[in-house]
Design goal:
It is a single chain. This protein is of the alpha/beta class and 456 residues long. It has helices spanning 21-32, 84-92, 99-109, 125-138, 171-174, 195-198, 201-209, 230-238, 281-297, 305-310, 339-346, 385-394, 405-419, 439-451; strands spanning 13-17, 36-40, 55-57, 68-71, 96-97, 115-120, 143-147, 164-168, 184-187, 220-224, 243-247, 256-259, 262-265, 268-272, 320-325, 328-332, 352-357, 359-360, 375-381, 399-403, 423-426, 430-431. Helix 1 links the parallel strand 1 and strand 2. The N and C termini lie far apart (51 Å).
């Protein structure tokens, strides 16, 4: 790994809008690679950023003469309404691109033939991304993970020719690619999410399928077997000469599957997932199958997969046990920002005290009804707690609107003790931005409160 040359984008004028984790890294990296960068954030006048070489921090009045606009993923360029700077870029004919696009351009301009892997899907992206990088590291293959889960694409170093970038790609990022070619790409699953940004499920699906753009002969596409119309999609990809693998977390997937806890393909058993204690549940079996399929294709030895999966420590805020009190496990699954993701965690436990709530996605928690019988009591927080309460009331699920995490955690412990329930599960099924800066801060607050509980 090494730094990028300082002249890769000399002569280019690049606009960067949004200076959060992705945008600030993009502005600094592009400036360091020789570009003339103008960057701005709608909150910058309240929290100025220190001067950065090659970067001018100033609001945009006109984008004429710019070569590209890099917008942070959370800023809309079409629906529900384009940001004024995005509209300005379109009027000036300036392409709107992702920071991942510029990483690809930088790697190629630097002369590296490092390969790129794109990981997308509604749920499981982060785990699969980091797990794949872990498998590659275990095999001694230079690899680095980043993108949507962090670190930002343009904060990653230059890899050598045999290196591999494993990028988690959100639907927002995938809409803003121009030349980025993924040697291997996967679509894990697809359930309704971010419909405000994509209009409807068809628009969301189109955005996700961009991960396979520019793939052709010699590339790999991996599909989760639950992806809608999976067989038709696989046929279309194969018609372009792409090697396609359809995988899953149960026995029905055609190319790689799990039966009796064993990860298998047509050649036999690959790994015993009972050894992989940080990958519980069918959904994580799907993540393991996807990462393994790509790792084998990239050259990982088959006989090291079992050991590598077993040594994976998991990710924060994804079904992580963060404490045990009186035999009651407290599990942080704050990353579950929609019902489908929460269902994956809930299905791992026969009986639980459930902490949920925040900003509900379309459909709320109605789809979780088949799992409500596992909920001994639900404690609801956040803006849409009343909406969730109505759904639980309709299914006769015991619940209490407590409003905040500060009230939910001690109430959950008391209920678990009284009812003899072995698990307190934070799996909110909602976005977090009503009370927290993100799912990470929500999970950290949960852990802080658990650490302060009485343990007589």
């Amino acid at each position: 790994m090494s730094a990028f040359p300082t002249n890769l984008f000399t002569g280019q004028r690049i606009a960067v809008l949004g200076l959060g984790r992705n945008g600030l890294a993009a502005a600094r990296a592009l400036g360091a690679m020789g570009a003339r960068v103008q960057a701005w954030d709608d909150t910058l006048d309240k929290a100025p950023i220190p001067a950065t070489a090659g970067v001018e921090f100033a609001p945009f009045a006109d984008l004429s003469g710019f070569d590209a606009l890099v917008m942070s993923p959370g800023i809309p360029h079409t629906l529900p309404a384009p940001h004024p700077v995005a509209a300005m870029a379109r009027a000036a004919g300036v392409p709107i691109v992702s920071d991942a696009e510029f990483l690809f351009r930088a790697v190629r301009r630097a002369g590296s033939r490092a390969r790129f892997v794109g990981v997308t899907g509604t749920n499981g992206k982060s785990t699969t991304t980091v797990l794949l990088a872990h498998l590659l590291h275990h095999a001694g293959i230079p690899a680095i993970a980043g993108g949507n889960l962090g670190p930002a694409a343009l904060s990653l170093p230059l890899l050598p020719d045999n290196g591999i970038y494993v990028l988690e790609m959100s639907s927002y990022m995938l809409e803003r690619l121009d030349s980025l070619h993924f040697d291997a790409a996967c679509l894990l699953n697809l359930t309704p999410d971010h419909l405000d940004r994509h209009g409807d499920m068809a628009g969301y699906t189109r955005a996700k399928l961009h991960v396979f753009d520019r793939q052709g002969a010699g590339d790999l596409a991996v599909l989760g077997d639950t992806v809608p119309d999976c067989a038709h999609l696989a046929t279309g990809l194969r018609s372009r000469g792409i090697d396609v693998k359809v995988v899953g977390g149960d026995a029905d997937a055609p190319d790689m599957w799990v039966r009796d806890g064993m990860l298998r393909d047509g050649a036999g058993v690959i790994a015993d997932l009972a050894h992989a204690t940080s990958l519980p549940g069918t959904h994580n079996a799907e993540n393991a199958a996807t990462a393994t399929a790509i790792a084998l294709w990239l050259g990982c030895p088959r006989d090291m997969i079992d050991t590598a999966l077993a040594s994976f420590d998991g990710l924060a805020h994804r079904q992580k046990t963060i404490g045990t009190i009186d035999g009651i496990r407290f599990i942080d699954d704050s990353k579950a920002t929609n019902a489908d993701s929460a269902a994956r965690a809930m299905a791992c436990h026969d009986r639980m005290i459930w902490i949920a709530g925040g900003i509900a996605k379309a459909g709320g928690i109605a789809d979780l009804a088949p799992l409500f019988g596992r909920v001994a009591h639900a404690f609801l927080i956040g803006r849409d707690a009343p909406e969730l309460a109505r759904t639980l009331q309709a299914h006769n699920v015991a619940h209490t609107i407590v409003g905040t995490m500060e009230h939910a955690v001690p109430a959950a412990l008391a209920a678990a003790r009284t009812q003899g329930v072995p698990v307190v599960l934070l799996s909110p099924a909602c976005a977090s931005f009503d009370q927290f800066t993100g799912f990470e801060s929500r999970g950290l607050r949960f852990a802080e409160l658990v650490a302060t509980l009485d343990t007589p």
